[in-house]
Amino acid sequence: MRSALAVAGFCLFLLGAVLLRTEIVRLLPDLAGVYRLAGLEVNLRGLAIGDVRSYGSADGNGAVLVVEGVISNVEADARPVPALRFGLRNASGREIYAWSMRVPQDRLAPGEQLEFRSQLPTPPEAAIDVVVRFSDEQTLALGVR
Hints:
Strand content: 35-45%
Radius of gyration: 20 Å
């Protein structure tokens, strides 16, 4: 009987740890890595970046890298939208250049989406990949390059 209760208690603990993972990581940020190892996503912002595409273009001054995508509010309440950070990586996966961009809208309603577009003149030739993530105001204030 005790072992059955112990198993049931452990199952309830695991269920709670999975269902409440966002709140748990908000309180104990170091646990985010544990959830990541278990293959579980933890989204503290309530926003998702998707449909990211990048392509080369040209203007009168040379090559231009264009990066476009969509920011979505995946929560049931309005969310603030932070700046975006773009990082270019080389063939070995090392970041070789980065820049940030403020988005034109500071809040997204539940389910709302916002398209973004950023252009980088004369991108590094060694860049083969771009990573887009949310930035914080400190990084933006530093003018990350």
